[in-house]
Amino acid sequence: MSTSDDDYYSDGIDIRDLPKVSLHDHLDGGLRPQTIIELGEQIGLDLPATEAEDLADWFVDSCSAGNLPDYLKTFDLSIAVMQSEQGLRRVAREFVEDLVDDGVVYGEIRWAPEQHLQGGLSLDQTVVAVQAGIDEAIDDAVRDGRDIRIGQLVTAMRHADRGLEIAELAVRHRDRGVVGFDIAGAEAGFPPSRQRAAFDYLASEYFPVTVHAGEADGLDSIRGALFDGRALRLGHGVRIAEDITIERSDDENVYVSLGRLAQWVKDREIVLELSPSSNLQTGAIERWGDEMDDHPFDLLYQLGFRVTVNVDNRTMSATTLTRELGLLGDAFGYDLRDLESFQLNAAASAFLPLEEREELSERISAGFEAADNEGA
């Protein structure tokens, strides 16, 4: 499927040109290295490298220790240059520009406003600044004949116990760009039940929630996301595969049984925001192996779980949605039909009104059909 680090094809079609939906994409994990260097110089930030290519390599190397805590340490650098209106606005604008270049037609950008107050901004001012950058990039895309829609996912850090305050912030901005709520950060030891007041409030406001779960912690974390957090989607959720038992296999078939939690997630079509490269870097799939073809993605897909493909953090994994789809295609032999299924899953799972999700799905299908016809 792939031809180089930059070009990925499916059935002879450039995956970058296909319409895509990005649901799990962290703003502070997608800064351009050159932007970090330039903004860092303005504030006197000590950087581990002063050339963009070297800094990009540093991020990937530092994030590949095989555990989530070390992975998260690298965010100190990116967050440091996002403490001003100027910094937030520029980062958000460039982020959307990179989504457009990646062929994304709908994206949800998640980030934690509480981590961007060191320069004196208020929580509301940070959200406004990010939205301003998003709007600028969308306007530029329209002028260039491209069309993209973006929603903010306002995130609370699960260790900081500010969940209710951040939930209220998200709801205040629900008609000004914010489409959902998330909790992120160190997963083990910080269950969703700690933020129960926030989740109760969000439920009372009919506000959609996704929760990081099943990445650095197991099945109990997923249970908490579903039943304490009322999550409609699981951020990663890859470790739901721990509740799947392979009974036996032969050359053609694998016979499995699902535990009650896995069966619930499958039957209720709870969305899995899987991020293959990131899952390898953080050791989230170490139970199954350390190569892409060890990832339980294909098992979950074949069993009928609502799988989606995501980047998690573009800078930390040196990746794009195009690349993630290409890597999965190489690992599991997926064709254009499979890639379309992943995008339709994502479109159906977006935090948009039903009618708009249906329109997005139609756009995805039309784009894949046009590409297929052109490539035939």
TrEMBL record:
Cofactor names: Zn(2+)
GO cellular-component term (any): cytosol
Domain Adenosine deaminase: 19-365
UniProt entry tagged with the keyword Metal-binding: yes
Molecular function in Gene Ontology: adenosine deaminase activity; metal ion binding
Entry EC number(s): 3.5.4.4
Annotated GO biological process: adenosine catabolic process; hypoxanthine salvage; inosine biosynthetic process
This protein's UniProt keywords: Hydrolase, Metal-binding, Zinc
Cited Gene3D superfamilies: Metal-dependent hydrolases (3.20.20.140)
Superkingdom of this protein's organism: Bacteria
EC primary class: hydrolase
Family: Belongs to the metallo-dependent hydrolases superfamily. Adenosine and AMP deaminases family.
UniProt name for this protein: adenosine deaminase
Species annotation: Labedella endophytica
Organism ancestry: Bacteria, Bacillati, Actinomycetota, Actinomycetes, Micrococcales
